[in-house]
Amino acid sequence: MLQKIKNVINLGIKEFRGLVRDPLMLGLIIYSFSVGVYIAATSSPESISNAAIAVVDEDRSHLSGRISDAFFPPMFVAADQISLGEIDPAMNRGDYTFILVIPHNFQKNVFAGNRPVMQLNVDATRMSQAFAGSGYIQQIAMGEISTFLNSTSTNLTPLPAQNVIRNRFNYNLTRSWFGSMVELINNVTMLSIILTGAALIREREHGTLEHLLVMPVTPFEIMVSKVWSMGLVVMTAAVLSLLFIIQGLLRVPVEGSIILFVCGVALHLFACTSMGIFLASSARNMPQFGILLLLVLLPMQMLSGGMTPRESMPQAVQVFMKLAPTTHFVELSQAILYRGAGMNVVWVPFLILSIIGTVLFMLSLAHFRKMVSQVS
């Protein structure tokens, strides 16, 4: 038993040496957990900036003038006044992202309580501005209408209820807090699969796998050595990224226990490194491994709940993705890092992730032994 442990340790150290001699893989690790996390956090703007807007003012009233003048930098450029017939040509040329149409008798209908309708034309090809800008324009217009009514009438009936919004865990809705964490979670998944798979394929391409098979080591020891060594590399990089990039450089607060998060990372790495061995055992060379990686990694990252809430996905996708380790890793990571959850809250995803990891390890070991028998 002691000799098996020594073999696993020595084989893992060999993996470290092979990784050090691979500058491209080292560069990928450093970039993914430093520059990659920073870019993902800061590339999405907090709000729209200098969005081009025009107003078709058919009412020419005091209220319509207030609404037209309410759009100003830095969110919007000063609104241009255009006619109704210029809307389609201007949108076709891409002159404006938004064109707001204020109809005739708008102010009169507002005073009469007739609930008049304004039309907002949006150039949806500019997705980042179109998505956020529509909401901002609605808030600005409704705010001007409310202010105007309150300043011109003292007999308005107050609303029977008031909606008070309180944002928890991210009070200012800062996008960098979300983007950096999601990128860290995605990189842990991606690098764990890539490193273990590349380590195994590198052994096959260089012919060193045959050398290992003639030594007194078993396929189990070879596989475990790759799992713990590459998992340790990814875990170390993830912790350093969390401490120095996310908390240090980006100033993102971490609500929960970092130690508990690291335990979750270890379980996830156990599952994903085993998956990397399985994919590498199924591929004959690195290009084939890359194709398999795309087919597996992209759905795991996009459908795990990190980018889009799982509740908004089809029911069949939700059920199927419960078999993926990333789903439960995203769940426990968000609970710990965002909401400060303890083990009493996240024990279920921890348990499920450990079961998935064990099953993947056993399947990968059986597949690896089959591949080794064919090689020998």
- Spatial order of the strands forming the largest sheet: 2-1-3-4
Q: Tell me what portion of residues adopts beta-strand conformation.
A: under 5%
- The residue-averaged pLDDT reads 87
Helix content: 55-70%
Number of strands: 4
Radius of gyration: 28 Å
Q: Order of SSEs, N→C?
A: HHHEHEHEHEHHHHHHHHH
Computed structural class = mainly alpha
Major sheet: 4 strands, mixed
Low-pLDDT stretches: none
Structure report:
With 376 residues, the protein is mainly alpha-helical. The chain has two domains: 2-43 and 175-375, no CATH class; 53-152, 3-Layer(aba) Sandwich (abc type-2 transporter like fold), CATH 3.40.1710.10. 66% of the residues lie in helices and 4% in strands. The chain contains 15 helices and four strands. The chain has helices spanning 2-20, 23-33, 35-42, 62-69, 87-93, 106-112, 127-152, 175-206, 208-213, 219-249, 258-282, 286-302, 315-321, 325-337, 343-375; strands at 53-57, 80-81, 98-102, 119-122. Strands 2-1-3-4 form a four-stranded mixed sheet, with helices on one face. The model has no long low-confidence stretch (mean pLDDT 87).
